[in-house]
């Protein structure tokens, strides 16, 4: 049950058209809907301000359609579907309105383009090969109501490319640093910025990169203060966390 429906329910209690006991029963019945293959959390937006996010990998298009349809029927907008393959997206968009991006593999059902925070999130990617993860972070943050500035191909192998955008880095409220190889970009940005830096290691690199493990360990051992690290290739997690931090600035 979304915020609008909850407020309407409380108004019915206030008006006397619904007893408190009946309202409690409705609230107890509404936390989730059991589809058999999924229990859709309908209270997520009420609790956290953001609807449940659908992880598309491993789900059939029919399952994704079923989950998203239930969420839309209960008032959810900006429903994020991550790791959605192009083939699955073609089937899903036949049943529900879908804004799909092949680079990030993110689909947004019932998109509501609205900026709800005054701060800016900067998403910086070391190389072009890191763009799928960087775009996953950027599009996640945008879907959650954030203004996003992209700085792409600014890896430390050509440090001047990053330093020429120092003004953008210093104006950010939170920065997402995406890098594979040795993952040095996060430490460099962490030494320049006065805001939180979320480091995202990617699986981009040669053999000794170990599928992103070397970048992960480098970022975890960063000598720069204020750098936190999410899992390998987890652009979604970084974008979501960046959104939380960005909106906290407005709450204060």
Question: Helices and strands in order, then pairings?
Answer:
Blueprint: H1 3-15, H2 20-29, E1 32-34, E2 39-41, H3 44-48, E3 54-55, H4 61-73, E4 79-82, H5 86-92, E5 98-101, E6 106-109, E7 120-125, H6 131-143, E8 147-152, H7 159-163, H8 166-171, E9 174-179, H9 185-192, E10 197-201, H10 213-220, E11 227-229, H11 235-251
Parallel strand pairs: 3-4, 7-8, 7-9, 9-10, 10-11
Antiparallel strand pairs: 1-2, 4-6, 5-6
Helix pairs in contact: 4-5, 6-11
Textual characterization of the structure:
Residues 119-251 form the PurE domain. It comes from Caproiciproducens galactitolivorans. The chain is an alpha/beta fold and 252 residues long. It folds into two domains: 53-109; 120-251, 3-Layer(aba) Sandwich (Rossmann fold), CATH 3.40.50. It has eleven helices and eleven strands. The strands form three sheets. A five-stranded parallel β-sheet has the order 8-7-9-10-11, sandwiched between helices. Strands 3-4-6-5 form a four-stranded mixed β-sheet, with helices on both faces. Strands 1-2 form a two-stranded antiparallel ribbon. It is globular, with a radius of gyration of 20 Å. The protein starts with a helix and ends with a helix.
């Amino acid at each position: 049950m979304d915020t609008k429906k909850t407020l309407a329910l409380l108004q019915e209690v206030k008006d006397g058209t619904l007893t408190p006991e009946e309202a409690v029963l409705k609230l107890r019945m509404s936390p989730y809907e059991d589809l058999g293959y999924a229990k859709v959390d309908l209270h997520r937006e009420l609790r956290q301000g953001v609807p449940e996010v659908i992880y598309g990998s491993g789900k059939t298009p029919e399952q994704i359609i079923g989950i998203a349809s239930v969420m839309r029927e209960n008032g959810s907008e900006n429903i994020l579907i991550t790791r959605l393959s192009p083939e699955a997206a073609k089937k899903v968009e036949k049943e529900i309105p879908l804004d799909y991006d092949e680079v990030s593999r993110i689909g947004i059902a019932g998109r509501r383009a609205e900026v709800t925070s005054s701060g800016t999130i900067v998403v910086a990617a070391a190389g072009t090969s890191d763009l799928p993860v960087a775009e996953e972070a950027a599009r996640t943050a945008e879907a959650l109501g954030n203004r996003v500035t992209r700085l792409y191909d600014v890896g430390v192998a050509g440090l001047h490319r990053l330093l020429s955008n120092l003004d953008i880095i210093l104006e950010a409220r939170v920065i997402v640093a995406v890098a594979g190889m040795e993952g040095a970009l996060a430490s460099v940005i962490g030494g320049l910025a006065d805001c939180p830096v979320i480091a995202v290691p990617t699986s981009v690199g040669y053999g000794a990169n170990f599928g992103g493990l070397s970048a992960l360990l480098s970022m975890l051992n960063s000598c720069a203060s204020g750098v936190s690290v999410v899992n390998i290739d987890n652009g979604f997690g970084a974008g979501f966390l960046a959104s939380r931090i960005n909106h906290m600035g407005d709450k204060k």
